Amino acid sequence: MCKRILKADYLRLMSYYFLNEELHFPPVHQANRDGVLAIGGDLSIDRLLLAYRLGIFPWFSEDEPIIWWSPDPRFVLLPEHLKVSKSMKQVLKKDEFTITYDQSFLEVISSCQSIKREGQYGTWITSDIIEAYYQLHQMGYAHSVEVWKEEKLVGGLYGVAIGTCFYGESMFTKVSNASKAGFITLVKQLATKGFTLIDCQVYTQHLESLGAHYMPRQQFVKKLEGCLTNTTLKGNWGELL
Length: 241
What we know:
The chain is 31% helix and 24% strand. It is α+β, with helices and mostly antiparallel strands. The strands form 2 sheets. The protein has a 7-stranded mixed beta sheet with strand order 6-7-8-9-10-5-11, with helices on both faces. A 4-stranded mixed beta sheet has the order 1-2-4-3, covered by helices on one side. The protein is globular. Mean pLDDT is 92; it is low at 1-11.
């Protein structure tokens, strides 16, 4: 996903909320119609964790300031609404892929960064993003799903987990069905651990085919608040799932 703000658009940024060193975000209902809530700040662990707990995420390109988003509506997947097509059931039944967790986080996020996506200019996964999320991973909050075929990494995804919400950040695939296999397997595993919300952030046809749908921001925030009352499955998911 990559929503690019052109240079000419910076004239409009004066009306946005600019963050300073204070660990604070404005209320999410103040986001503009595109979902932009605030500009600036940093990618510190404390700020990122606060953002996710409030239903906010960073999304920006290499030549832009940090842009914080809280879109309305939000694109989400409830685990009980997961759709698995007949063809994907056959793929999973054949054990075509080997799926692991938190085994190669840096390789997964780097693959998400470098994969070519139709209609996308550049990448929002900057070196600063990689560094910040690797720190989250080392602290047990950010996780990766690896999809292997013949001992080669052919797909995967990463995201952040707090409480019983998993915030999906990005996925990649190098062979057909690899990312779908990883995502489906993850959602099923998380459901057994009591997860009730998968945040997909913004619409993709790929995730819609798996059961994701729009949810009004107010409803999303309320459901998120419920998720955050639960214990975080913190640590290496290769040992916990």
